[in-house]
Amino acid sequence: MARIVTCGTVLFLALIAARADAQSPKLDAPLSYSSKLLTGRSQVIVRPLDASVDLLIQLAGGTLGRPLPSVNGRVANVPNTALATLAGNALVQKVALDRKTIGLNERTGVTVGATAVRNALGYDGSGVGVAIIDSGITQWHDDLTDPGVTGSQRVAQFVDFVNGQTVPYDDYGHGTHVAGIVAGNGFDSSGARTGIAPGARLVVLKALDSSGTGRVSDVIAALDYVVNHKGQFNIRVVNLSVATAVYESYTSDLLAQATRQAVEHGIVVVAAAGNRGRSSGHPQYGGITAPGNAPWVLTVGASSHMGTTDRADDVMAAFSSRGPTRIDYAAKPDLVAPGVGIESLSDPGSTLYSNYSAYLLGGTVPTSYPPYLSLSGTSMASPVVTGTVALMLQANPSLTPNAVKAILQYTAQIYAGYDWLTEGAGFLNAAGAVQLARFFSQGGEYPTDPMWSRQIIWANHRVQGGRLAPNVNAWAPTLVWGSDTVDGGPVVWGDLWSTASSAWTTWSTSCSDAICSSASWNGESANVVWGLQCGGSDCASTVWWTNGDHTVVWGTNGDETVVWGTNGDETVVWGTSYDETVVWGTSCGQDCQPVIWNH
């Protein structure tokens, strides 16, 4: 006991030895602000996960929460007055705010081509495990029934990181809606409102409460669960229709690092881009939310099918967040998918069921409540892509996350009038993506379509002119999308036709640095973030602009506020507010209100 007291005394003296008034680089931006407050407490994530650090937290007046092994951290609740001294201790590597997160079909499947895939090729996601980190899942819905086991649902596992309950439930209703977009079988609508991959198995991880809010630590814990149980449930893709604000680079953000762990384990992470595409009625750039700002994440913006199955009238959803990302100035989103007026499953005991009763929809079979609900947002677009990934992985289980992203971008359809920071590589084409995924496995004649973009966005460069090939180093699970290879050799995507030699050559890039900010590109390329301002490379300065229609005159103001403007009415404002919440699909004003399409 004496040794324990002595150890505690040493740690306490080490703690108080730190300068309380010092601004520690170990504190993230929100906590730097909170550390100046004389009252209140903050829920944080402290690294590393270590017994001595745990004791240090307790001596600082903090209480311990759950461990987060994937980021080597510990959740804790500490007084604001102790933040600076805690971060100043040599034992502590980082203290980050445990930020709040928020949850950000009838024609959708036909529009993107998923229905054609099921009818022509027979793929429905069977055998693929899909993890949904959201607000939970309704205890019962006809559209989630398992045809193989009477009286059961296609929910392989439910884990509640909010309230610790064991029986499935969804008190907010968002997770149920997302699950239906991915894997609903359309039972209550005679097949009309079938999800994208109705044969997929769901692993539902509740990280949002009845109001649609949660904590970053809950999402990280859910991602830990996905990685640890990948083999048990064959989890190949995880959907994150949740979002939080960006306060630091993806290279240090703990949520981003947790998603990277999942990707390196071969799990595709699909995330919503956010719904900050407009401000005061005007388009704005730079509104991508976390973890969609990370390059290894498959980030999805929202389009609108305009209530028809004809792709010719598809448009961008005005609310969909545009790139580039805050802090890192990286190109996003990766692509867009339908996210306006998406009709999916409802939960009669949920908040959304009550608050959006005007958007409830009946089915074609007798039910005790309206089984469907129409919602809009990038939260709805993400599961459209997640379901498509399940179809791709059923067609070719060997695909890595990088290969999945490349195929989705290469087969996407470009729509005129939108820049690459708005539509990414283009509008989702599920039919083309599954065709190319199958070619990667089975070979044969190379599939192609004049509507395909035939491009990918690697780092901040749109590269085109070649053909994607399987088994090249760009698809390695440990290679960060958009980066250089570990050995410094060329990153290879496939083949490129040379008119000079009338032969196929290597389609690749040789980067001059780890993030390919400057590179030698084989084939056509264009910097979609910085344009030609810095000779085609990424600019080092944060004061920059481009020419013509490529968007922008951008600038900064001090160290905290970043104001980006353009030569028209388009603006971006990244403010100094440390508000922990962000808007999402059903609460971002008139721009993304639910829609009831004419039936």
Structural class: alpha+beta
Largest sheet: 8 strands, mixed
Strand content: 15-25%
Q: What share of the residues lie within helices?
A: 10-25%
Number of strand elements? 31
Instruction: Work out the helix count.
Output: 15
The whole-number mean of residue pLDDT values reads 83
Characterization of the model:
- The chain is an alpha+beta fold.
- It has 15 helices and 31 strands.
- The strands form 8 sheets. Strands 6, 7, 8, 10, 12, 15, 16 and 17 form an 8-stranded mixed β-sheet that branches. It has a 4-stranded antiparallel β-sheet with strand order 2-3-1-4, sandwiched between helices. Strands 23-24-25-26 form a 4-stranded antiparallel β-sheet, with helices on one face.
- A hairpin with a 4-residue loop joins strand 2 and strand 3.
- The model is unreliable at 1-22 and 543-587 (pLDDT under 50).
Gist of the model:
The protein has about 600 residues and is α+β, with helices and mostly antiparallel strands.
List keywords for this structure.
599 residues; alpha+beta; eight-stranded mixed beta sheet; four-stranded antiparallel beta sheet
Architecture blueprint of SSEs:
Layout: H1 2-17, H2 29-34, E1 41-47, H3 51-59, E2 63-68, E3 73-79, H4 83-88, E4 94-97, E5 100-103, H5 108-112, H6 114-121, E6 129-134, E7 155-160, H7 174-183, E8 201-206, E9 213-215, H8 216-228, H9 230-233, E10 235-240, E11 242-243, H10 254-264, E12 268-272, E13 278-279, E14 282-283, E15 298-304, E16 315-316, E17 335-338, E18 342-345, H11 351-355, E19 360-361, E20 372-375, H12 378-395, H13 401-411, H14 420-423, H15 430-442, E21 455-458, E22 461-464, E23 466-468, E24 491-498, E25 503-511, E26 519-521, E27 524-527, E28 544-545, E29 552-554, E30 562-566, E31 571-574
Parallel strand pairs: 6-8, 6-10, 7-8, 10-12, 12-15, 15-17
Antiparallel strand pairs: 1-3, 1-4, 2-3, 5-9, 5-11, 13-14, 15-16, 18-20, 19-20, 21-22, 22-27, 23-24, 24-25, 25-26, 28-29, 29-30, 30-31
Helix pairs in contact: 1-3, 7-12, 8-10, 12-15, 13-15
